[in-house]
Specification:
154 residues, Lysozyme, mainly alpha, 49% helix
């Protein structure tokens, strides 16, 4: 559920996606982490490699976050902290002693978590969240996209 929600939020399941930060592929794993995990010659546009790297990277970050929680260097929910470290970097989580209070970090955690119920099959596809530009609808269209269907008021 976490991986699928993160992929939906990151790339809308587009294996050829290139993010604003130049991360590449379906999972948007930071290039340094992708290369370290999958090797120099691995292609980040290969969805299997990208998802494999994403899972391994999330596990690495989760272990590092748990160590920081045990040492009381950070506080918060381990999943929120791990997602924040994936998006903003572990150093930013350590510096903030938790999920950074920046709107970017907060939006990322909220945006990924918004997809959880839908990915578990127990809730609808999320509607647009205020100021969460990277949230995608069920058809893979990014909210804020002028070609995306807009909700109408009753």
């Amino acid at each position: 559920m976490t991986i699928a929600s993160q992929i939906e939020y990151e790339s809308g399941f587009d294996a050829d996606f290139i993010g604003l930060d130049k991360a590449r592929g379906i999972s948007q794993v930071p290039q340094e982490a992708f290369t370290r995990i999958e090797g120099e010659k691995a292609d980040p546009f290969n969805a299997r490699k990208s998802i494999d790297a994403q899972g391994k990277y999330l596990c690495e970050l989760s272990g590092q976050i748990q160590d920081l929680l045990d040492q009381r260097k950070v506080s918060g929910n381990i999943l929120d902290l791990t997602l924040s470290a994936y998006h903003s970097g572990l150093d930013s989580v350590v510096q903030a002693k938790g999920v950074p209070s920046t709107s970017d970090a907060q939006k990322y955690v909220t945006g990924v978590r918004t997809w959880f119920a839908s990915m578990e099959g127990i809730g609808p596809v999320p509607r647009k969240l205020a100021d969460v530009a990277a949230l995608h609808d069920g058809d893979g269209k990014q909210f804020g996209d002028p070609t995306a269907p807009q909700p109408t008021s009753p």
